[in-house]
Amino acid sequence: MANEIKSVEYGLEKIFEGAQDFLPLLGTDYVEFIVGNAKQAAHYYKTAFGFQSVAYAGLETGLRDRASYVVKQDKIRFVFTTPLTAESPLNEHIVKHGDGVKVVALWVEDARKSFEETTKRGARVYMEPTVETDEFGEVVRAGIYTYGETVHMFVERKNYNGTFLPGYKEWKSDYNPAPTGLKYVDHMVGNVGWNEMNKWVKWYEDVMGFVNFLSFDDKQITTEYSALMSKVMSNGNGRIKFPINEPAEGKKKSQIEEYLDFYGGPGVQHIAIATDDIIKTVADLKSRGVEFLSQPPQAYYDAVPERLGVHRDAFKEDILEIQKLGIMVDADEEGYLLQIFTKPVEDRPTLFYEIIQRMGARGFGAGNFKALFESIEREQALRGTL
Question: What global pTM score does this model have?
Answer without folding.
Answer: 0.92
